[in-house]
Amino acid sequence: MLKRYLYILILKVYSITISISGNIKELTLQADKFSVYKKMIVILIIAAVSLPAPSYKYMRVDTDKRLETIAFGSCGHQDKPQPVLDLISDIRPDLFIYLGDNVYNDSYQIKDLPGCYSRLGSKPEFIRLKDTADILAIWDDHDYGWNDSGNDYPFKEKSKQIFLDFFGIPEKEILRRKGIYYSKLFTDGKHKVQIIMLDLRTFRDRLLPYKGEKAWIPGYQYRLDYSPHLNKKPAMLGEEQWAWLQKQLRLPADLRIIASSTQFGVSYNGYESWANFPHEQKRLLDLIKSTRAEGVIFISGDVHYGEISLIEEEYLYPIYDITSSGITSTWPFSTPNLNRIAGPVMENNFGLITIDWDRNDPEITIQIRDVNDDVRINWEFKISHLKFK
User: I need a surface site. Which of 5, 21, 244, 270 has the fewest CB within 10 A?
Assistant: First the structure.
């Protein structure tokens, strides 16, 4: 598109005849009266539009298989040891999902972000994981831009390019649209598992500064950052991503795992989560209902501890949100969560979903394992539990 506009500009200003077939093959300048300065401008523009497009690698992911074990985690600093990744490699999962804050760009300078990824990529723990499991990834604030940043971050396109340089292109369509959302469908011809990777940074509007709503309520005696939006206009996903998600939820699948970098199922706690945009959270729940999408489970990161949250709503099956955080990061306390049914796990941890397809009613086991490989949370249910009645 940029090339087209530049060519039109040249034509209008200098009366240039251009013949194009693939690359530029012929360029005839009718420029008897051009000054040297004008000719230099033309040459510079032609050189700019003739530069090759950035070359990307594709993600190495085998989707033609029965997906039985899915590990996931978030919040790993590239300059710290990551023994959690070795524990994951020992399990040899079919898939590992990075849920954001996969590196920490502490300087907030975009020029330093490639180096953060480079240091992660050179870690023996990461190299072993990459050789052991297929990897999918989304970003959160610290590997996207500034702390808690959203659509106001000015270097989002550069950050996207750096992300794709490291993890690879999940699908070619991602190059033609804003953001990094995408999906993968794994199947052995009999069982289908859909992985939906949301982008909660590129389109997200500004957060609302905290107004003191919880000041005198027990359990909230910490510094809260944000209040929930009461206005229904501020967005999390953006309309383009919403339209795409609706199409994804209409596709047939036995199990759908929606990867959300921030927590979906947690109640309001003053930190980043979908609870700051309650109208957007409700919109997604309503979308699951209207599309009749069964088998939905959310996984999330961000908060530096692990837990399971549960949303129960009329005319909808139970919606679980399994939070695993962090690979290296910890937090001194867990926030109140009225939807918490298991946890919190305050030590470094990772999540694990196991599906037993050999049963007549396949069984799903959800675990949070700590840095010592101790199972701290174990939750089991049948896949029929995630169906409309």
Answer: 21
- 64 part of a folded domain: no
Residues 145 and 195 in one domain: yes
- CA dihedral of 330, 333, 339, 344, whole degrees rounded to 10: 60
In contact, 76 and 329? CB cutoff 8 Å: yes
Judge if 91 and 26 occupy the same domain.
no
Shared domain for 24 and 84, answered yes or no, is no
Same structural domain, 40 and 83: no
Burial tier of 331 (Cβ tally within 10 Å: 0-12, 13-18, 19+): middle
- At residue 11, the pLDDT reads 34
Do the domain assignments include residue 60?
Answer: no
Which amino acid does the sequence have at 98?
Y
pTM over 0.85: yes
- pLDDT per residue over 214-261, tens digit each? 988 999 999 999 999 999 999 999 999 999 999 999 999 999 999 999
Tokens coding 68: 């039985």
Nearest to 74 by CA among 38, 99, 46: 99
Q: List the beta strands (DSSP E) in 261-362.
A: 296-300, 306-311, 319-323, 340-345, 349-356
Cα-based angle 18, 24, 27 (whole degrees, multiple of 5):
40
Residue 59 domain flag = no
Domain range spanning residue 42?
A: 2-49
Structure token pair of residue 97: 């999902």
- Fill in the DSSP letter of residue 358: T
Residue 23 sits in the same domain as residue 82: no
- Is there a single domain that holds both residue 102 and residue 135? yes
Ramachandran angles phi, psi of 77, nearest 5°: -85, 130
Is the domain of 73 the same as that of 37? Answer: no
Contact 141, 99 (CB under 8 A): no
CA distance 251 to 260: 19
pLDDT of 179 above 90: yes
Inter-CA distances, 115 with 121, 305, 369, Å: 10, 27, 30
Let me know: does 168 contact 61? Beta carbons within 8 Å: no
Per-residue pLDDT reduced to its tens digit, 21-72? 333 333 333 334 334 444 444 444 444 434 444 556 888 899 999 999 999 9
User: Which spans in 292-368 are helix H?
Assistant: none
Query: Would you give the DSSP letter of residue 107?
Result: T
Give the C-alpha separation, 335 to 344, whole Å.
Answer: 9
